[in-house]
Amino acid sequence: MTERTFVMVKPDGVQRGLIGEIIARFEDRGLKLVGAKLMRIDQALAEEHYAEHTDKPFFEDLTDFITSGPVLAMVWEGQDAIAQVRTMMGATDPAESAPGTIRGDFGLDMGRNVIHGSDTEPGSAEREIELFFDEEELEDYERIDEAWLY
Ligand code: RTP
Ligand code: MG
C-alpha cells in the first residue's frame, strides 16, 4: 500500500553533516520525498510530538535534546513506507541496531540516535505529518523512475 511517513534528522544528525547521506538512502530505496524543511522544534511542539512518552523518566532529556538545534523534518512516500523506514532506521538503541541500518551505522547512544521515523501504530504517521506540515507544503508529483520502482 502506498503511504506517507514522517521522518526527521535529529539535531545530532544535522550537526554531524549526515543529512545528505540519509536522504540518499531513502532515494536509493525508491521512496519519494514529498516534503522537507529545516526547522527548530520549540518546547510545545516537542512535548506534543513525544506525547506518548510524557510520563517516562527520559522525557525531559528527550525534549531538551530535540529542541537543542535544527532538525530536518521530512515526509517520504512509497509502498509500505512506514515500516520500510523503520527497518532502514534500525533499533532505537544504536548498541542493538544492525550494521547497514542508519542507527547501526551512525548512532552513538540511546539519545543521539540520529533519526526519527513514525512508528507503525495506526494513525501515528498521519498525526505527525499534520503536526509538522501544512497540506500545501507537501508536493504531489510523479518521480520519473516511478514506473520502474513499483
Ligand atoms: P523515535 O520516536 O525517536 O523515532 O524513536 P523510536 O520510535 O525508535 O523510540 P521511542 O520508544 O519512540 O523513543 C523515542 C526516543 O526516546 C529516546 N529514548 N530513550 N533512555 C531510554 O530508555 C530511552 N528510550 C527511548 C530515544 O532517543 C528514542 O529515539
Ligand atoms: Mg517513536
Q: Any low-confidence stretches, pLDDT <50, length ≥5?
A: none
Radius of gyration equals 15 Å
Strand content: 15-25%
Helical content (DSSP H or I, runs of 4+): 25-40%
**How many strand segments?**
4
What this model shows, in words?
Keywords: ATP-binding, Cytoplasm, Kinase, Magnesium, Metal-binding, Nucleotide metabolism, Nucleotide-binding, Phosphoprotein, Transferase. The active site is at residue 116. Belongs to the NDK family. This protein is of the alpha+beta class and 150 residues long. It has 8 helices and 4 strands. The chain has one domain (3-122): Alpha-Beta Plaits (2-Layer Sandwich), CATH 3.30.70. A 4-stranded antiparallel β-sheet has the order 2-3-1-4, sandwiched between helices. Bound molecules: ribavirin triphosphate and magnesium ion.
